[in-house]
Amino acid sequence: MLVFTPTVRGSGGFTGAFASPDGAILAIASAFPLLTNPPARAAYGGQWLRYRLALHRRGEPAPFAAFDDLSLPITAVAFHPTDPVIAIGAGSYDGGWMFEGDLVFWDWTADRAWRPLTHTPEVARCAFDASGERLEVMVRPWDEEWGWDENPTDPFERFYPLVVDYRPADHGTASEARIGPLTGVVIAHLDLAEAAGRIADDQQLADWFAVASPVRRGAIWDVAWLDDGRLAAVHDDCQLEVHDLARGEVRRYDGEDSGVAILRASPPIIHVTPSGRAHGNAQARLMVFADDALGEWRRFDGIYAFSASTRGQVLGRLDRRSEPGAQRDLLLDTVTGDVREIDLGHYDVFNHYLGVDGAPDLYFLQGAPPSSHEHKRMCRLRPDSEVERLWPLLRADGGPASHAMECLGHAVEDGLGAGLIVAGRHYDPNPSQAAQGFIYRKPLDADREIWRHATAGSASAIAHLPELGLVAAAFLDGALTLFDAATGAIRATGAATIDGFPTVIFAMDARRDALAVGTVDGRIAVLSARALIQDHAAGGPIDLSS
């Protein structure tokens, strides 16, 4: 059951919208964010869904076709004059030297794509000629220095014409883009001619979809059940949003900051940060949601990851990279209001985030020595701030795979006793290699894995369903899996989809049989765990809207 969906379904943050020459199709280009909230967390492993071109018929919010096989932002779109084919240009500056690019021909009826060029710089604009036999392209230079001798001007305002022959996918071979350094022209980027059919404002978009005003929504960073009928969510557009499922009502709490996490405390604590989190102006605010009101409790400078225990304590780990030399992790007491500064060792967003929240105790990761990010151990923080080191996160074997990063944990307690579910990614010195991850269960009192599975992506969210004896885990490659909490047996698994197109679950919470999820494309849904087991024991896509 979908609880919320934006007006335009299945897209990320809009980067462009282009109407076909006959006005029958709208192509929407969008970008999906990486998992970087709460701010002291960063997990990228396995997330292949970054950019999408989705096609919509007039008045239809759900796309009828989508192209996701892109690793760079979409910069240009052109419809072929006669064939059901779109040219997609992409690219960006790599931040240091190169203008990386891509060019794709996509036949949306056959869902077949081909690249006419093996290598190309960033594409700025493209358009088919009247015959449809050639694609006229404007690209940036290969890098900041290329073409400087012939044209010593700002490389960010220097563009080169390129002509690409259009051939069906089964004919011809790809070649490298050939541009001449003497053909460069200087054009202020804002003065580049807009692509034909480009929709420039929200009113045009509203007219296309026949709505008064289009509702946009970024990624859902967290969801949490408040009770059987109310579900809370946080995203970039407000501090907190509460959905009354029975009444179909939504209550928003707006402010200058945006919500990034919901701590499972009583009452719930909302972690909010300044929108955009400009470097040098990082700040964390903790707000308490009680009696349908949201009020500030504490405010701290710095980038923090917070977790709460059922004993009424809150742990804040400070990202030391944002505050070099700082040693002020925080231990807060929600009952007395006390705030203590403690030092639990080095913390950085890739290596030390854990996210165990709503457990009887507070847990964190610590390197050996504590100033290191290597040889990490699971640790428990006692109420008196004493540290109990439990067990190594991974067994040391001398290789890079024994170094865990992008971790996520969740506390469980059942007939096997108290334990932790821990997921993460094995470090690989070659960043181009496919992500290899893990998920396991260990008891608190022994360095012993009760069960373990290999994964193809870092875990984005974990939830425990104690009444059903299940652990639900969502991964950045789009997978959603239900494990038997005691044995690790897979009870249901599949790729998360909505309207038949892939999505990625960023947030999750469970209450009895109900599994609430929030997605990278701004959707909120509630699933029945029992129905998932019945319908997806053998795999296959999991439609979050059903």
UniProtKB/TrEMBL annotation:
This is WD40 repeat protein.
